[in-house]
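PROTEIN DATA CARD
Card holder: Glycosyltransferase family 1 protein
Chain length: 351
Origin: Tessaracoccus rhinocerotis
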Amino acid sequence: MRVASVPSGHVYVRHIGRSDGAGAQRLPDPRPPEAASEQQWWPPVMLQPGWITQHADEFDVFHVHFGFDALGPDDLRTVVRELRAANRPLVYTVHDLVNPHHADPGLHAAALEVLVGEADALVTLTRGAADEIWRRWGRLAHVLPHPHVVPIEEMGVPRPASAARRVGIHLKSLRANMNPLPLLPLLAEQTAERDLQLVVDVHTDVVTPGMRNHSADVVSVLSTLERLGHVEVHVHDYYDDGELWDYFRSLALSVLPYRFGTHSGWLEACFDLGTRVLAPRIGHYHQQEPDVLGYRLEDGVPDPGDVAAALDVVAEGGRWGADPGWRRTQRSVLAASHEAIYSSLVRGSAT
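Structure generated from the sequence above:
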């Protein structure tokens, strides 16, 4: 089975394939002309007009995951038309019911109307998301959970003893769905009360005047927080994978400062490495893995009692996280499940 995945190189897509390389074979991502590195797959060439028509004899199934952020509904209708003309089925995995990178949900909503409406088979990660898809579009989606993010051999690496008292919140580059300002002072106050260390990470572009994601409000809050003895503020560029795994291992809890969203690969990476997650009670984060800690949002403001209860759980200690053997088995099951969907479509069966 030959699959044109959009993209192929993303960690999620790699880990729904068999670890031994058998089974469905995914075409490599064509390198965009403007790519800065061999690893860059965006913007995806496979979604450009004409690519499907020119390469239809190279794949049996077309599977969309990510990468259509900047495409309008007409662009996606062109993709569908080319697939129909080539008699190639379309699978769409609904990762995001609202795009975490878009302040205005309109473009993504329009894209979903095409992809969800026209796909020959739908996949999503949680039962809650599948229910929402049914309510909105009357379409059934296969529920196949998120695979491991961290390489399985990294899961057993020991965590430093200091991690047990460290609570982290990573602002990254302040993408559209982030709202850390109400959380930061609350976390600073409540970690101090429990003798916990608060670790705040942020990318360089947020604190540097003139850069695209600069926020004077965030800089002001961080300047206040870093005067506190129990708060560390780390400014840096993007972590590579190894640095990110070490970052997660250094924390007992990772707090997600999101104001909207659906699913989270960050949450899954934390689960792989045994770092607890505190996520807002929005989207479907809390169905991804058992016992994800949660806080309610009221007009964008976190509930202090919910945050306090989560920090009490962290202060008490205890284990949380994925078993490597279970993640290995899960990957095999996910690979077989996707292959069954592909085979059914190629045979012309309804899914």
